């Protein structure tokens, strides 16, 4: 996307986008540069970031779980920028230890001991790699972790959302 214009933060006048950027800054510490690239299509940016906010705030998964998913999906998709961004949120924004976050980013799901989180991550990585390979047993595993249909749909959309950012 470096081949399109980058809008500077001081050029953003739309109050809806300013509010979204304020939320992003509260979660991530700053507005990532790719959002300024996305300002070339502000109508979609508002819808996309609004949807991301709903996924992060109104579903059944906790924000630390969501960031784990973001880290591992981004890692699987070969996006070091996004992997690092979600590591920053998990570490600095949510207070998870730096050693653990570094190990998660370098070694992957194998470092996760929590059974629920491991199930969520295994499912997320499977959806990311080959959504058609998901089985009833995979979904039953999510239900055993406490997810309802809402949580299952949230998880699949989170994977899709992270993967779309990985490609920008």
Provide structural commentary.
This protein has two domains: 10-57, no CATH class; 63-166, AhpD-like, CATH 1.20.1290. Helices cover 70% and strands 0% of the residues. It has helices spanning 15-28, 33-38, 42-57, 63-76, 80-93, 98-107, 115-130, 136-144, 149-166. Helix 4 runs antiparallel to helix 5. The radius of gyration is 16 Å and the shape is globular. The N and C termini lie close together (6 Å). The model has no long low-confidence stretch (mean pLDDT 93).
Main features:
single chain, 168 residues, AhpD-like, 70% helix, 0% strand
CATH fold call of the largest domain: AhpD-like
The arrangement of helices and strands along the chain is HHHHHHHHH
Which second-level CATH architecture of the largest domain applies?
Answer: Up-down Bundle
By CATH reckoning, the class of the largest domain would read: Mainly Alpha
Q: Report the strand count.
A: 0
Radius of gyration: 16 Å
Q: What is the 3D form?
A: globular
- Give the % helix: 55-70%
Q: Average pLDDT, to the nearest integer?
A: 93
Approximate strand percentage: under 5%
User: Could you describe the largest sheet, including whether it forms a barrel?
Assistant: none
Return residue spans where pLDDT drops below 50 for at least 5 consecutive residues.
none
End-to-end Cα distance, whole Å, is 6 Å
Number of domains: 2
Structural class: mainly alpha
């Amino acid at each position: 996307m470096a081949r399109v214009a980058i809008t500077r933060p001081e050029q953003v006048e739309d109050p809806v986008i300013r509010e979204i950027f304020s939320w992003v800054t509260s979660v991530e510490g700053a507005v990532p540069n790719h959002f300024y690239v996305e300002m070339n299509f502000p109508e979609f940016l508002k819808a996309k970031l609004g949807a991301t906010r709903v996924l992060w705030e109104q579903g059944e998964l906790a924000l630390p779980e969501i960031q784990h998913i973001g880290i591992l999906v981004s890692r699987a998709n070969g996006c070091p920028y996004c992997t690092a961004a979600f590591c920053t949120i998990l570490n600095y924004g949510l207070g998870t230890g730096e050693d653990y976050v570094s190990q998660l980013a370098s070694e992957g799901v194998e470092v996760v001991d929590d059974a629920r989180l491991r199930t969520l991550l295994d499912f997320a990585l499977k959806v990311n790699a080959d959504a058609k390979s998901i089985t009833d047993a995979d979904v039953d595993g999510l239900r055993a972790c406490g997810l309802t249909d809402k949580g299952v749909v949230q998880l699949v959309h989170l994977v899709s959302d992270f993967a779309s950012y990985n490609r920008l």
